[in-house]
Design a protein that fits this description.
There is one protein chain. Helices cover 10% and strands 45% of the residues. The chain has 105 residues and is mainly beta. The chain is globular. The model has no long low-confidence stretch (mean pLDDT 86).
Amino acid sequence: MTEWQEVKNEVREGYQFQRTGDTIEGQLKSVRVDGQYNNKFYTVETEKGDLSFFGTAVLNTRLCAVIVGDSIKVVYKGEVKGKSGRLFKDFQVFIKKKVTEEMVK
């Protein structure tokens, strides 16, 4: 019989977009709900390895049509003032859809 092992909460560090122009480009590997506020957590397979980041209202909206396997490019555009006067982080999102056998037929 195996020994009991304690399961501890893992603190997941995600990539943080800080400077205008910060970019993540690669294939979307997974999307899951994680964190204190049940936010979406995206993992992208890049040339430098896997990078993960938490979604924002803007990112979640722009990434809603993306499925695992699609290639994405996320570019941080900086903070902008919304209609309400509040600042938010703005992003450009580009998608290359994964080509499947069903699409080719």
